[in-house]
């Protein structure tokens, strides 16, 4: 009886001292960018389900806000989560322009932010409380340019760039620089704007110029429409892109026209790089009935796990300052998407994966390490 009383007392004591730690999640769950947000959020949610507590027993609660893909909503979400919900860290946003809004608020309030998939090169410039678990655009653009010229033996290209999108502009710039240094020729750069739907003028130029391939560092809605309209006029050269087309929505929108598209990505579920990756894919398959874990879901999970890892290292000093310091000293962390190291500036070092769409499926081609 005495032993039972002692155990009951210990349980009550642990319940009293266990706390709830809050992490804010800021993503576009509706609107034109919802495909990105949903993929990231699925990863964060599953990671939280699998690891709902810190090592000291504190429970971890995620509070998500839908920004609808709007910059102002992104800033408002950050303000609310910090001021009202008292979060100790933030995960988000999905795209670079909106993530900039989140970072500006968090930097002022000194709350750490981990961007899961925002890859703009200058995103973290002059920021102390910002980091990411994805690679930078200069890395994926550079590596794909080398791959196209040296491995695929493609010598001439037309680049289609979204003039209103910093992701597109930065990725195009990195790709062009490296492709030219290899000896490749950029025959022409064609510009579009987010939300455009009629690309007849664009695809007619592609057919007339007749490059070896086309590089589209743009988001999936426009890329899918370009692929469909290019096929309709008989343009049959290779179409390629960055990680802006790495979701199922691109395949659904593009149909047969996107078969053969080659693109850069950060993860491939058929090639899990770590034990956590294998375990996470199994959990995802049990939860969703498929092992086809999207790359952005892996990145969302990694953002959560890196945040939790930092919090565990701050058990005796669970403050935003300590959490931020530990995030920025992440070294060889074996995440879902691969092994991650984060430098003092918040930038992550990780591999880039090359994939091809075949018969409406993403097919792994190769991996390129840092």
UniProtKB/TrEMBL annotation:
Keyword terms, alphabetized = Signal
Q: Which family does it belong to?
A: Belongs to the leucine-binding protein family.
| Signal peptide (UniProt feature, chain positions) | 1-18
| Organism of this sequence | Campylobacter volucris
What is the recorded name of this protein? ABC transporter substrate-binding protein
InterPro entries in the cross-refs? BCAA_transport (IPR051010), Leu-bd (IPR028081), Peripla_BP_I (IPR028082)
Taken from the record, one Pfam family name reads: Peripla_BP_6
Q: Which domain of life is it from?
A: Bacteria
Q: Where is the Leucine-binding protein domain?
A: 20-358
Q: Does the keyword Signal apply?
A: yes
């Amino acid at each position: 009886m005495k032993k039972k009383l002692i155990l009951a007392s210990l349980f009550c004591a642990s319940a009293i001292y266990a706390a709830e730690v809050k992490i804010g999640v800021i993503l576009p769950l509706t609107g034109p960018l919802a495909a990105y947000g949903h993929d990231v959020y699925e990863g964060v949610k599953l990671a939280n389900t699998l690891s709902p507590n810190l090592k000291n027993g504190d429970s971890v609660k995620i509070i998500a806000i839908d920004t609808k893909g709007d910059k102002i909503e992104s800033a408002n979400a950050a303000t609310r989560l910090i001021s009202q919900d008292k979060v100790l860290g933030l995960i988000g946003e999905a795209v670079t322009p909106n993530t900039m809004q989140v970072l500006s608020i968090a930097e002022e309030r000194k709350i750490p932010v981990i961007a899961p998939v925002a890859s703009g090169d200058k995103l973290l410039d002059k920021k102390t409380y910002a980091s990411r678990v994805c690679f930078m655009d200069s890395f994926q653009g550079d590596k794909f340019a080398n791959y196209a010229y040296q491995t695929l033996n493609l010598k001439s290209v037309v680049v289609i760039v979204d003039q209103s999108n910093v992701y597109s502009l930065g990725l195009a710039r990195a790709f062009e620089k490296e492709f030219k240094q290899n000896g490749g020729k950029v025959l022409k750069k064609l510009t579009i704007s987010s939300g455009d739907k009629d690309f007849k003028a664009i695809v007619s130029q592609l057919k007339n110029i007749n490059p070896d391939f086309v590089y589209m560092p743009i988001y999936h809605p426009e890329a899918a429409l370009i692929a469909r309209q290019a096929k309709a006029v008989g343009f049959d050269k290779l179409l390629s892109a960055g990680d802006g087309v790495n979701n199922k929505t691109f395949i659904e929108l593009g149909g047969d026209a996107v078969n053969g598209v080659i693109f850069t990505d950060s993860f491939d579920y058929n090639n899990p790089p770590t034990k956590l990756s294998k375990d996470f894919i199994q959990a995802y398959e049990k939860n969703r009935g498929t092992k086809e874990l999207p790359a952005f879901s892996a990145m969302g999970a990694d953002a959560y796990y890196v945040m939790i890892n930092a919090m565990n290292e701050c058990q005796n000093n669970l403050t935003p300052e300590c959490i931020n310091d530990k995030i920025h000293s992440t070294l060889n962390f074996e995440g879902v998407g691969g092994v991650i190291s984060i430098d003092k500036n918040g930038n992550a070092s990780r591999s880039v994966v090359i994939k091809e769409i075949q018969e409406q499926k993403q097919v792994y081609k190769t991996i390129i390490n840092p």
